[in-house]
UniProtKB/TrEMBL annotation:
InterPro entries registered for this protein in UniProt: DNA_helicase_UvrD-like_C, DNA_helicase_UvrD/REP, P-loop_NTPase
Keyword Repressor: no
Annotated keywords: ATP-binding, Helicase, Hydrolase, Nucleotide-binding
Ranges for domain UvrD-like helicase C-terminal: 539-595
Pfam families the UniProt entry points to: AAA_19 (PF13245), UvrD_C (PF13361)
Hydrolase as UniProt keyword: yes
Protein name: UvrD-helicase domain-containing protein
PANTHER family hit by this protein: DNA 3'-5' HELICASE, UVRD / RECB / PCRA DNA HELICASE FAMILY MEMBER
Length: 605
């Protein structure tokens, strides 16, 4: 029986096909898995740059492109016949000798580029100070070394990026900008899916695919195949760094994962919660910023976790509701939040912590972990958790391996909370995600300038910077529009959203944001009849959409008048800048910003 691995391009291409073609392709793949009569068979590709590449006829006029080694088949894409043959001839594949991950090369394009590089080469080359042995120690392909030696400028390295595997381009880019071998290795290490990949056999395609979770998901039977083809990409294909963090067999200490917008922190938190529910030793609590986000994460867990028993081991909540529930369980009724005898949420948090101390004993009690209500706690949007809430979260799980797993970004804080985990008794080992998969480079550059790119305190020891964040793709630059009046701005908003809908963007993939509830009401009125979400900037936190429109981003609104006290003023402006930053980074593809009068001083020039 064949061992079939699906690449991430295949479900995308399959979903774009007409329904009859898509149905036939899925039926053909099921037959291929079962190795029954009528199943497609691999056909050799004439002129292929890699003899392991073949095609499978999946439907009338459409073929899948596979890389095969013995009984292992890696399905890369499905295309019309001519395009499939061209794709198959164009690419070659390798296994990185250091990381053991699979690599795809645009071999045809590199053949065309080499003569131009040779003509422009001026000795010494850019990498002349680095010996071949050091380049090979970074996993660079021995067959590509002559090509790399022709490179003379950093611009040459940038031009080669689309043609090279990322694990080949990344170390070259670090060295080209003057980085050391150690720096290049640290960057390359982010593509390792496990701490120890084991011995690397360049002929073992199966092992290489297992080490490359962002490029391959194995489907052993019809059920698994349908799951891979139908599930959202974030459920199935994790970047190696995300995979390593989410599916580590064990952490002996609390873990803090810091990452910029779009780096996949929430995805890591969801997968870690699912992993602990399946492989841990007790109930899992997943905590996030608000009840709305908790409901969103709960729905995503329903998609991610197929086993109902495993799913029931995960509770999703926010810190306020957790405290409220603990107090309500102890007192036998829901505490009043308004009226006579009402307690604030801060008071309820303190009371919940006191009750936890009484019911479970000393907070350092590890002898009887079953006395705690949860065995594992996963925290999302951790930058906005208060010190009292941290103490409560620390109290609901025992001090034991895999107790706390925390993700957050101090630059996306929307409250005045600034606390490091160490200050509340949580000495965490820190990891950083620096690759944004959601934001195109143009939008990432814009929001870094908007945020100021400076240091942000909280969560980690010291301060967290934004240096080194990068995007995986390019896209459109954000659009900033100025109008003469509020009426004109709202008319422009409606015209923009209507144009997006006319282009085929689903209404659920469009969000409109404003700083105040008054402006949100005005936006909703202007968008009457258009089924798109409108919310305040804060209520967009944690969500993502294909396109986002932000209105009223004007002086005096974003921000409003700051307080006079210098310290309070600085904190206020930083919080307001962060709130706008959070709203801007909800967009995957396009960001539209509008104002009338003078624009917000936060907007980059």
């Amino acid at each position: 029986m064949p061992r079939l691995a699906i690449g991430p391009e295949f479900p995308r291409e399959l979903s774009a096909l007409a329904q009859p073609v898509r149905r036939d392709a899925v039926v053909a793949l099921r037959r291929f898995l079962l190795n029954v009569a009528g199943a497609p068979h691999p056909e050799r590709v004439r002129g292929a740059r890699d003899p392991r590449v073949a095609t499978l006829r999946l439907a009338d006029g459409h073929r899948g492109v596979v890389v095969r080694r013995r009984d292992v088949y890696w399905l890369r894409t499905v295309l019309p016949d001519a395009a499939a043959w061209s794709y198959a001839r164009r690419h070659r594949y390798s296994v990185n000798p250091v990381l053991g991950v699979v690599e795809e090369w645009d071999a045809e394009a590199l053949e065309r580029v080499e003569p131009a590089l040779r003509r422009s080469a001026r000795p010494p080359g850019l990498f002349a100070p680095v010996c071949d042995g050091d380049l090979l120690s970074l996993g660079l392909d021995v067959h590509a070394l002559p090509l790399f030696r022709l490179i003379t400028t950093e611009a040459d390295v940038a031009a080669l990026e689309p043609l090279l595997p990322p694990t080949q381009h990344l170390p070259l880019a670090v060295l080209a900008r003057g980085g050391s071998l150690a720096e290049a290795w640290r960057e390359l290490d982010s593509w390792r899916a496990a701490d120890d990949p084991g011995p690397v056999d360049p002929d073992d395609l199966y092992a290489a695919l297992l080490r490359t979770p962002d490029q391959a998901a194995f489907a052993a039977d019809k059920v698994a195949l349908d799951r891979v083809l139908g599930a959202p990409e974030w459920c199935t294909f994790l970047h190696p760094a995300q995979h390593r963090l989410a599916k580590a067999p064990r952490y002996d200490h609390p873990v803090l994962v810091v990452g910029g917008a779009g780096t996949g922190k929430t995805v890591v938190a969801l997968h870690r919660a699912a992993y602990l529910a399946a492989h841990g030793s007790g109930p899992v609590l997943l905590v996030t910023f608000s009840q709305g986000l908790a409901e969103e994460l709960s729905a995503r867990l329903d998609t991610l976790v197929e086993d109902e028993l495993v799913r029931k081991r995960i509770e999703v909540d926010n810190p306020e509701r957790l405290a409220l529930r603990i107090v309500a369980d102890a007192e036998g009724r829901r505490p009043a939040l308004v009226g006579p005898g009402a307690r604030t949420l801060a008071q309820l948090t303190d009371e919940a912590l006191r009750l936890m101390s009484l019911s479970t004993g000393d907070l350092l009690d590890d002898v009887e972990p079953g006395r705690k209500p949860y065995r594992h706690v996963v925290v999302d949007e951790a930058q906005d958790v208060s010190p009292a809430q941290w103490r409560l979260l620390r109290a609901v799980a025992p001090h034991a391996p895999d107790d706390l797993f925390v993700v957050g970004d101090p630059h996306q804080r929307v409250t005045d909370t600034r606390v490091s985990l160490g200050a509340v008794g949580i000495p965490a080992e820190q990891h950083t995600l620096r690759t944004s998969f959601r934001l195109p480079q143009e939008l990432l550059s814009f929001v870094v300038r908007l945020r100021g790119g400076g240091l942000a305190t909280g969560l980690a020891r010291g301060a967290t910077d934004m240096y080194g964040y990068r995007a995986t793709h390019n896209g459109e630059r954000p659009r900033v529009r100025a109008y003469e009046s509020a009426e004109a701005e709202l008319a422009g908003l409606r015209a923009t959203v209507e144009s997006w809908l006319a282009e085929g963007v689903p209404p659920g993939e469009i969000a409109v944001g404003a700083r105040t509830t008054r402006l949100v009401r005005q936006a909703r009125k202007a968008l009457e009849g258009l089924d798109v979400r409108a919310a305040t900037f804060r209520n967009l936190k944690g969500l993502e959409f294909e396109r986002v429109a932000l209105v009223g981003v004007a002086e005096g609104v974003v921000p409003e008048s700051p307080p006079e006290d210098p310290g309070a003023r600085a904190r206020f402006l930083q919080r307001e800048r962060s709130i706008l930053f959070v709203a801007c980074t909800r967009a995957r593809a396009m960001l539209y910003i509008s104002h009338y009068g003078r624009g917000s001083p936060f907007l980059p020039l």
